[in-house]
Amino acid sequence: MDITQEPTEVRDLPYNVFAKACPSRGTLEHVTGRWGALTLGALHQGSFRFNELRRRVDGVSEKMLSQTLHALERDGLVRRDAQPTNPPRVDYELTPLGHAVAERLTTLIEFVEGNMDDVLAARERYDGTRREGVSKPA
Fold it and tell me: What is the pTM of this model?
């Protein structure tokens, strides 16, 4: 079905992620972007300090993690808890809404991890057909 020919129940929703100007699109990007998904997945395991979270989300730069956390906090998915200690202690944890999103992401993460043998085999088949210079239909 063409997304421009959406069923009535989809058109009647107050938000439509397929519409360019819909604010839900930005939240979807924050949640499903590489660092957003990994950050939410990590925080689903519990509260983390910034550097603990950075170590958990291997490969993320300090700048990208900071930007990701700000976006997720703005969307109401992450709570930043600054303790008035010396030195200051800042913990990050999921809000109830963040937990609901992370539950769904965790299911997807587990599905992807559980099916990687099939994905890697498909990649190998695909790459093999490209090396031979013959494009075979899937």
Answer: 0.80
